[in-house]
Design a protein that fits this description.
By secondary structure, the chain is mainly α. Helix content is about 75%, strand content about 5%. It has two domains: about 100 residues; about 130 residues, no CATH class. Helix 6 packs antiparallel against helix 7, helix 6 crosses helix 9 and helix 8 packs antiparallel against helix 9.
Length: about 260
């Protein structure tokens, strides 16, 4: 393991984690504005990854669509379907704007849907009764633990690659280490958060979040591999871009949101 790289990653994480937790605790509208801003930065990173010829136009178009969505979200927090409609309109605008080839337009459009709709799940999780801020703390903690565990176990003990053509750095030991640390951290909340949840079910839930999150990481790796990019950006020292840190959370958010409503 590169200790200097690990130290840089740790410092960045320790600096940002308290800020994120405070914003989560503050709730709406601060958390909503924060998630929309992060979503915008992730979309810009995706445009840079695919080297879009429409960057100049979409750079202006995307925040306009997102601003309209945010206004409706602030005015009436219980109308997510209207926000979804606006996002779908933004998807078709991405397909129609500019001179990009069809493949890049489709990637841009689906990135728009993927990032914004799944970010909406994060916003809605904050407002779920008996979940709220504490539940979101748990959700982020499990995801972060999975990422850290996968990185540390993979660097120290990983030998066999999972998908060498897609993501050469990911190993089976790293993946299992991520699941283990996700369960370990998730259980720290047992008794204070999921009081009525069976212990085995909580273990399976933490493992599921880790596994789904790792698939989210692989989805981003496919895009980066396709366009010959190592990191989505440089905003987070030691980590890369915001998309590099949010990829697992983006996919696991709808997973946990659907489960909550399936069993509620």
């Amino acid at each position: 393991m590169n200790l200097s790289q690990f130290f840089l990653r740790s410092v960045t994480a320790l600096a940002l984690a308290p800020i994120v937790l405070v914003i989560i605790w503050a709730g709406h509208p601060y958390f909503s504005i924060f998630i929309i801003a992060v979503s915008y930065l992730m979309l810009i990173e995706m445009l840079l990854i695919i080297k879009s010829d429409n960057f100049g136009k979409l750079y202006l178009l995307i925040p306009m669509v997102m601003a309209v969505a945010l206004v409706f979200f602030v005015i009436e927090y219980q109308l997510p379907y209207l926000v979804i409609l606006i996002v779908i309109i933004g998807f078709f605008l991405c397909l129609l704007v500019g001179k990009d080839n069809l493949t890049n337009r489709l990637i841009t459009g689906f990135s728009f849907l993927y990032i914004l709709l799944f970010s909406l799940c994060i916003l809605l999780l904050r407002e779920v009764p008996n979940f709220g801020a504490l539940g979101l703390f748990w959700f982020f903690a499990v995801n972060w633990a999975s990422d850290i565990g996968a990185y540390c176990f993979g660097k120290c003990f990983g030998r066999t690659k999972m998908f060498p053509r897609i993501s050469p750095g990911k190993t089976w030991i790293g993946s299992l280490g991520g699941i283990f640390t996700a369960i370990l951290v998730g259980l720290l909340f047992y008794g204070s958060l999921f009081i009525s949840l069976d212990l085995l079910l909580l273990v399976l839930l933490c493992a599921g979040i880790s596994i789904v999150g790792q698939f989210g990481d692989l989805i981003e790796s496919v895009f980066k591999r396709r366009f010959g990019v190592k990191d989505s950006g440089v905003l987070l020292p030691g980590h890369g871009g915001i998309l590099d840190r949010m990829d697992s959370i983006l996919l696991s958010a709808p997973f946990i949101y659907i489960l909550i409503f399936s069993f509620s």
